[in-house]
Amino acid sequence: MRISFQSFSFSLNLSFLNMMWQASLSIFLPVLLPGALAATTYDMVKEFSGSTFFDGWNFYGKFDNLTNGDAIFVTSSVAKSSKLAYVDSTTNRAIIKVDNTTKVALSDKRNTVRISTQDEIGVGSVWIADMYHVPYGVWPAFWSQAPNWPTGGEIDTFEHWNMELHNEMTLHTNPGCQQVSPAQTSTVVNSTDCSFSSNSNAGCGVMGPNDSSYGAKFAAAQGGVFITEFAESGISVWFFNRTSIPTSISSNSSSFSIADLGTPVANWPTGGCAIDTFFKPQNLIFDITLCGDAAGNKAVFAQTCSGICYDDYVVGDGSNYNNAYFDVASVRVYSVAGTNTLVKGNSALTFRPSSWATLGVAALSTGAMILLQS
C-alpha cells in the first residue's frame, strides 16, 4: 500500500507541475513577446530605387491645402518636365525638390512635391530610407499615415523645419495613445501624449540628439539611413550616419535582424499605445512644403531665420531653396520573415491636419532646443 501511495503521489506531482508550467507560460508569454519581437528577422518585400524609383507613387497634384503652406504640390507630369522629381543619371538616385529657378510674384505660390505610395504597409514591417541629402530652410518630411487619418495614426520618421539642427520623430493618433516607458537613446521628449486633439496636434515627439540628422551637417556627412519598425510590440526609429550604418543594412541585404540595430533613437512601446488599436496600414510619404502652419509660424520661424517666411523667401527668384531637396538612394520595405505586409492599393492621400499654428508648437520646439544645447 505504501508503494502504491508513493507512485500515485509522484504521478500527481508531475501532473501538478505540468499544469503550473503551462500556466506560467500563459502568464509570462505576453511579457516575453516584446523581447522576442525585438530580435525579429525581416525580409525585403518592396524596393524603390534607381530608374524605377518613382514607380508606385502618387503625386498630390494640387496646392497645399493640408498644412497651409505657400506651395503647390505638382502633378507627376509637371514634376517630370520641371525636374522637380527625377532620377539623377550620374548617381542613379532620386531627387525630390522645390522649384529654385522660377521667379514667384507676390500672392503666388511656389512649386514643390508631395508623393505617397500606392501600396499601404501593415503592422509587422520595417521601412528604410537611405538618403544623401535632406531639404532644409523649408518644412520637409518623410513620414507615413493611414488613409483615414486620424484613425489609423501617423508616423513621422523624419521631420523638422527651417534651419533647425535635429530631426524630430513623432506619432499622431486618436486619443488614448501615450508614450510609456520607452527604450530609446534620446532624452528629449516634447510630449508623451500622441493624441491629435491634445497640444494642438503636436503629437508625442522625440528629438534626435544627433545634430547631423537634419540640415547642412546631414549633407556634409553624406547623409545616412532612417529605419522605422512598425511592430505589434511598438514603433521604433533609428538613425545612422553614413559611416555608422550596420553592415546588414549598408550591404543592402534582402534580410536582416532588428537585433543588428541596437537601441532605437525613439521608441513607443505598445504598453502605452496598443499598436493594433491606434495604427492601421500606412502609406509612405515624402513632401516639402514652404512656410505653413508650423514652419511659417512667426515665433517658430524667428527661432532660426530672419525676416518673414513668405515675403522674404517664397517670393522672388527661388535661390533661397537651393538646398531644398531630397537625394534618396532607396526606400526599402521589409516584412517579418515569411510574411508580406504590403496592402495593394492606389491610394492618393488627400488629408493631413493643419493645426500647428500655435505658440504651443513654438514653445515645444524652443524647449527641445534648449535641452539639446544645455
CATH architectural designation: Sandwich
**Helix content range:** 10-25%
Relative strand content: 25-35%
Q: What overall geometry do the principal axes of the alpha carbons give? A: globular
The CATH class is identified as Mainly Beta
- Give the low-confidence spans: 1-38, 354-374
Overall structural class, as computed from helix and strand content, comes to alpha+beta
The number of helical runs is 9
Question: Would you tell me the overall average pLDDT?
Answer: 87
Number of strands: 22
Largest sheet: 9 strands, antiparallel
Fold-level CATH name: Jelly Rolls
Radius of gyration: 23 Å
Terminal Cα span: 79 Å
Count of discrete structural domains: 1
What descriptors fit this protein?
single chain, 374 residues, alpha+beta, Jelly Rolls, eight-stranded antiparallel sheet
Structure characterization notes:
The strands form 4 sheets. Strands 1, 5, 6, 10, 16, 17, 18, 19 and 21 form a 9-stranded antiparallel beta sheet that branches. Helices cover 24% and strands 29% of the residues. The chain is globular and about 55 Å long. The chain contains 9 helices and 22 strands. It has a single domain, classed as Jelly Rolls. With 374 residues, it is of the alpha+beta class. The longest helix is centred in the N-terminal third of the chain and has 37 residues.
Write the SSE topology.
Layout: H1 2-38, E1 41-49, E2 57-59, E3 62-63, E4 71-73, H2 76-81, E5 85-87, E6 94-97, E7 110-112, E8 114-117, E9 120-121, E10 125-133, E11 139-145, E12 154-159, E13 168-172, E14 188-189, E15 204-207, H3 215-220, E16 224-231, E17 234-241, H4 247-250, E18 255-257, E19 266-269, H5 275-278, E20 283-289, H6 292-295, H7 298-304, H8 309-314, E21 325-336, E22 342-343, H9 359-373
Parallel strand pairs: 4-7
Antiparallel strand pairs: 1-18, 1-21, 2-8, 3-4, 5-6, 6-21, 8-20, 9-22, 10-16, 10-21, 11-12, 11-20, 12-13, 13-15, 14-15, 16-17, 17-19
